[in-house]
Amino acid sequence: MLNYKQLHYFWAVAKAGSIVRASERLHLTPQTLSGQIRLLEEALGVALFLRVGRRLELTEAGRLALSYADEIFQIGNELEETLRSRPESHTIPLRVGVDDAVPKTIAYKLLTPAMTLAEPVRIVCREDKLVRLLVELAIQRLDLVLADRPMPAGTNVKGYSHKLGDCGITFFAEPRLAARFTRPWPQILDAAPLLIPGKEAAIRTALMRWFDVRQLRPHIVGEFDDSALMQAFGQAGIGIFIAPSVIADEVQREHGVTIIGRTDEVTEQFYAISMERRLTHPAVIAINDTAHRELFANLQQAR
C-alpha cells in the first residue's frame, strides 16, 4: 500500500524545489527527507528525481506522481473542511478559474448571482492563463472557467463553451488627458496615446483590425495582460484605454475617467467553459441565466 506520509514528503520537495527548503518548511532534517523519498522510490520501483548539478529535477514518473499528489492532497483538504463544518452550515463549493483577460468587474458581475442562492455557496477563484485553467478544469480541480473566448480549437481538453453574452467597447481617458483632444470621434484616436490588451486577449486582433479599417494610427504606449493594471495606468493619465461597454458606468465612477467614445463594431465576448454539455451545478446555472437575462440583455435591447 502507498505510504501517504512519504508521498507528502515527495510532494513538499517537488513544490519547494529542493530538499533543504522543504526540510525547513517541514521542520525535518534533509537526511530524513532524502531517506523517506528513497523508500518511496523503492516501493514504487521508479526514480522520482534526477540530480542536475545542485538542483533536483523531476523525472517523467516524478511529474506524473506530482500531478496525482496535487489532486490527492487537494481532495484531502476538501474532505477535512467538509468534516469540520457543521451539517446545518453546509455550503456548495464553486471552484472558478478566471482568465487573465476577463476584467475583474465583469467576473464579479458574472459570479455574484451564485452568491444569492437559497443554499449558501463557498466560492474559490483562481486567476491564470486560459490554457492552464483548462488543464485544471480537465482534472476536475475547477467547476467552471470564465474566459473571453470559447475553448480554443485543438485543445486536448474535453469541455463545452457556453456563451454568456457580448458587448461593444468604450474608450476612456483621464479628464486632463481627455481635454487635450478636440477632434471628432473616432479621429480623436489617431496619434493619441493608447493602452491596449495583451496579445492573448481575444479582442486584441479585432481592435487592431478596426483601427486599420478606420485608418487610425494610435500611438500604443502600453500593452497589458491584466485589465485592472491597464485601467490603473489609464487612471494615471498615461493613455486612453478600453473596457467592455457593459461596465462603462462602473469604470467611469471607480477610476474618475471620462468616456471619449464607444463602438459596437468591436465586441468582447464572454464564455463559461465547463466539462458539462448541459449545465447542472446550481451556481453555474445561476451565473448563466443571470448573464443572459440581465447583465447582457439590456445592452442587446439598446443596440
From TrEMBL:
Gene3D superfamilies recorded for this chain? 3.40.190.290, Winged helix-like DNA-binding domain superfamily/Winged helix DNA-binding domain
The protein's matches in CDD domains, at most eight in alphabetical order, are given as:
PBP2_NhaR
Stretches assigned to the HTH lysR-type domain: 2-59
Going by the entry's taxonomy, the superkingdom of the source organism is recorded as Bacteria
Picking any one GO molecular function of the record gives: DNA-binding transcription factor activity
> Which UniProt key words apply to this protein?
Activator, DNA-binding, Transcription, Transcription regulation
* GO process annotations (BP): regulation of DNA-templated transcription initiation
- Give the signal peptide range: none
Q: Cite the NCBIfam families for this sequence.
A: PRK11062.1
Q: Which family does it belong to?
A: Belongs to the LysR transcriptional regulatory family.
Quote the protein name from its UniProt record.
Answer: LysR family transcriptional regulator, transcriptional activator of nhaA
